[in-house]
């Protein structure tokens, strides 16, 4: 194999089929040519969230364009656990960190939600997506989480799907132990993380009216919003997520 040796993974939107040729974006071309200094004949891996991961060969590399040929499917597309993260946005680089780590922890969708105590008024959705793509490329994921447009909590509650359970991380301490709650309610789910000021009583009352909601507790300590998100996702993965999926031994 070439210098890339499939250690370099890039997300693309195009379909991936044996023998097809793909022109990468200008940003990807700059990264491969000027940062990694790859050349024609080197190999990289591409994935698009639909067709698995493919070994590709660089057949033409120029200043602003890189053309690759799709050769071999090295990993079939995976079916992953179905978990959404709904979080009140926070200031600064911590929201980037949420997008990155939530992607690494297997989230299928990221949805910023505005609550009564949310101090942030705007969310850069494109930046969230960029962070999610980078995390997927680096972590070995075969998909990138969907980034939902920011929504008010009232609208989220109104439109919440009946077939998806909602776990609300409640810092008041009145929720069920989180691991036990996950074990009792398996299947498609969402994790709701409130703002640093917590949910208002009115918002908690609205959430309690949903038939498929459960307040869960992360213990007695008050956690920062990003810490609570990661802790809840780790608990979910440990209880019923991908970490518990049996390994495929058919190829052993």
List the uncertain runs: 1-5
Structural class: alpha/beta
Instruction: Work out the helicity level.
Output: 25-40%
The number of strands is 13
What share of the residues does DSSP label as strand, in percent?
15-25%
Number of helices: 7
Radius of gyration: 20 Å
Task: Describe the sheet with the most strands.
Answer: 8 strands, parallel
Along the chain, the helix and strand elements come as: EEHEEEEHEHEEHEEHEHEH
Q: Could you give the distance between the termini? A: 24 Å
Query: Could you say which overall geometry the principal axes of the C-alpha atoms support?
Result: elongated
- Return the average pLDDT rounded to an integer: 88
Question: How does this model look, in words?
Answer:
- This protein is of the alpha/beta class and 252 residues long.
- Helix content is 29%, strand content 25%.
- The protein contains seven helices and 13 strands.
- The strands form two sheets. Strands 6, 7, 8, 9, 10, 11, 12 and 13 form an eight-stranded parallel β-sheet that branches. A five-stranded mixed β-sheet has the order 1-3-4-5-2.
- β3 and β4 form a beta hairpin.
- α2 (94-104) packs across α3 (125-139), α2 packs parallel to α7 and α5 packs across α7.
- The two termini are 24 Å apart.
């Amino acid at each position: 194999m070439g210098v890339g040796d499939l250690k370099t993974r890039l997300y693309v939107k195009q379909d991936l089929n044996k023998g097809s040729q793909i022109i990468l974006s200008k940003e990807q071309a700059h990264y491969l040519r000027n940062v990694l200094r790859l050349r024609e004949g080197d190999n990289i891996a591409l994935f698009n969230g639909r067709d698995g991961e493919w070994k590709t060969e660089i057949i033409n590399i120029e200043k602003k364009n890189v053309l690759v040929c799709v050769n071999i499917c090295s990993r079939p597309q995976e079916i992953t656990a179905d978990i959404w993260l709904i979080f009140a946005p926070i200031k600064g680089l911590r929201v980037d960190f949420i997008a990155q780590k939530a992607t690494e922890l297997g989230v299928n969708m990221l949805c910023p939600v505005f609550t009564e105590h949310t101090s942030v008024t705007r969310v850069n959705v494109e930046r969230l997506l960029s962070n999610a793509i980078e995390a997927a490329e680096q972590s070995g994921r075969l998909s990138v989480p969907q980034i939902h447009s920011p929504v008010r909590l009232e609208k989220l509650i109104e439109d919440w799907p009946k077939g998806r359970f909602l776990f609300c991380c409640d810092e008041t301490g009145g929720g069920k132990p989180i691991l036990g709650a996950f074990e009792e309610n398996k299947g498609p789910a969402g994790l709701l993380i409130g703002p640093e000021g917590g949910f208002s009583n009115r918002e908690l009352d609205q959430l309690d009216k949903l038939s498929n909601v459960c307040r869960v507790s992360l213990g007695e300590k008050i956690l920062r919003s990003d810490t609570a998100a990661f802790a809840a996702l780790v608990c979910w993965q440990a209880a019923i997520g991908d970490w518990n999926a049996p390994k495929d031994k058919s190829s052993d």
